[in-house]
Amino acid sequence: MNDQDTPHVKEETVTLDAGELRSDSPDAAEDNIACARAPVGLLAELTHRCPLQCPYCSNPLELERVNTELTTEEWQKIMRQAGELGILQVHLSGGEPTIRRDLEDIIKTAADAGLYTNLITAAVLLTRDRLEKLKEAGLDHVQISIQDVDVNAENADRIGGYKGGSAKKKEVAHWVRELGLPLTINAPIHRHNIKSVEAIINYAVELGADRVEVAHVQYYAWALKNRAALMPTREEFMKSAKIVEKMREKLKGVIVIDAVVPDYYAKYPKPCMGGWGRGIINVTPSGRVLPCHAAESITGLEFDNVRDKPLGEIWLFGDAFQKYRGTDWMKEPCRSCSRREIDYGGCRCQAFALTGDAANTDPACSLSPLHAEWAKVAEVESHKAPPEFIYRRPGGAAPKTSAKKAPAATDA
Amino acid sequence: MAEAAPRTRAIIDATSRPVMPAHVKLRHDAGRGRWLILAPERVFDPDDIAVEVLKLCDGQRSVADIAGALAKEYNAPSEEITTDIVAMLQDLADKGVVKA
Question: Exposure winner among A80, A166, A259, A328, fewest CB in 10 A?
Answer without folding.
Answer: A328
